[in-house]
Amino acid sequence: MIDFAQRQVHNQRCSAALVGCFIVVFLIIGGAADYLYLDGFTPAGAPFPIATVFALGLATFTTLTAYYGGSGLILGSLGAEKLDIQIPEHRELRNIVTEMALASGSAMPQVYVIYDPAPNALATGTNEKNAAICVTTGLLTLLDREETQGVVAHEMSHIRNEDILLMTLVSILLGGIAILADFGQRGIYSARTGRRLGQKSPLIFLPLILLIALSPLIGRLLAMAVSRQREYLADAGAAQYTRNPGGLARALEKIRDAGIPFQKASRGTAHLFFTNPLRRRLDDSESGLANLLSTHPPIDRRIALLYEMAGLAKPAVRSLTA
Amino acid sequence: MIFVIWGIVFVVGIWIISTYNNLTALRLRVQNAWHQINVQLKRRYDLIPNLVETVKGYMQFEQDTLQKVIDARSKAMVSTGVKQAAEAQGALNESLGKVFALMENYPDLKSNKNVLDLQEELATTENQIAFARQYYNDLVTQYNTKRQVFPGNVIAGFFKFQPSEFFSAPEAEMALPKVNLSLQR
After folding, report:
1. DSSP one-letter code for A273
2. Is residue B138 left, alpha or beta, with left meaning phi > 0 and alpha meaning psi from -120 to 50?
3. Per-residue confidence of chain A (322 residues) as pLDDT tens digits?
4. Which of A147, A155, A162, A231 is labelled catalytic?
């Protein structure tokens, strides 16, 4: 049995660290802007580090937005809609989510669907009480009841472990870092800045430039560092809730064989999904680099682990032409 | 020296309090999970008369079986205690299983929309009961383990924490034929 309380504490710490890093990065970039462009922190410059304060305000605003409105923004950007209880399949989905909420002993999350043929699912929110599970209609048509149950249990496990808190924050804060990095890059390449750079010691601002240049990569690394282990844990949690690892394994097989990429997902939201919506080659690799740079574990490995849990032999390896 | 003694007393005190609180919290969660099972059972009690009413007209020759469901339902509703409740639930499950099996013989029933809806509702209720029990048993395992392993057992023994009972599935329920009610794909 996975100790979810321990996972929750871990995720809360990670989230706090993430927010801390995020604000520090903003402060450094703001400070750099003050130093390089506005001659701040010198008697000749502005009396007030305006860029730093602005950056701090922006960081705080983004964090608050991510925390209180993150799941709404994510669901909105993906075009998620409320369930239509008149449709039998939606009713079945609602029932399955109720079952899994009971199995995991958590509150009933909100349920959404995305009208899209790509089979996928995600969970978002900041805690158990405002969590949401979202499933594509493609998943509902592709999978039978048992398999859908496995997928929902996987998402429920993300909610129970409070992975959703960290994932949601990463999604929104990642967007913020990317925006700021764009501004920073434009500043460095302009001629006006080049003249100013010459007047100051290169040793001081070199790390700052590096930081500005690397910040999108830092964001990517963050998203990657948090995801792979979590997916394995959520699969294990799903097996615990359903007592049926085979259902989830078959769901993964069907989704893998369907191979429909999910168009509405972006790099900022890819890590939230049940299987990688962007379908990158890197995901199939188990090397150390892939472990570091990929948001999702190799789907074949997930399937094999689930079959192992079920006490069944490894399924035949899929042929490359499939 | 005196500080060391006070330090030890302080640490032990903190440990006693936290162990006691952990056990109490877990015991409350076990009770809450038990309550959850009852909520789901109540839902099933409410659904059964609907089902019987709907299928009555079609199943002219199965009045006995339907009556058995009604009887088992009333018996289960008044049962108390973990063990007795489990047995009464088992009998109800068995009679319901028979109705589902008999329904296979009535093609009209299987195409009736109301019946299909009710079947999905009952199927999910069955699942919900099963999962609520499973969660209850998980918690009981956790609680009983904490109660029995050292050093928690010292606190549990001193404050008289009673062990919780498992909700075990009776024989009849285990033999229940599996009914596949999933939607046609």
Report:
1. B
2. alpha
3. 556 778 888 888 888 888 888 888 888 888 887 777 776 666 666 667 788 888 889 888 888 888 888 888 888 888 889 998 888 889 999 999 999 999 998 899 999 999 999 999 999 999 888 999 999 999 999 999 899 999 999 999 999 999 999 888 888 876 655 545 555 555 555 544 445 555 555 555 665 666 666 666 665 666 665 667 788 889 999 998 998 899 999 999 999 888 888 877 766 677 888 888 876 666 666 666 666 667 788 888 889 989 988 876 555 544 443 3
4. A155
B183 at interface of A, judged by CB pairs closer than 8 A? yes
Q: Is the peptide bond before A216 cis (omega within 30 degrees of 0)?
A: no
Taking CA–CA distances from A93, the nearest residue in chain B reads B124
pTM: predicted TM-score of the whole model, two decimal places: 0.80
The answer to whether the CB atoms of A105 and B185 lie below 8 A apart is no
ipTM over the 0.85 cut-off:
no
Interchain contact B139–A (C-beta under 8 A): yes
Residue pairs between chains A and B whose CB atoms are closer than 8 Å: 51
User: Which three-class secondary structure string do you get for B96-138?
Assistant: HHHHHHHHCCCHHHHHCHHHHHHHHHHHHHHHHHHHHHHHHHH
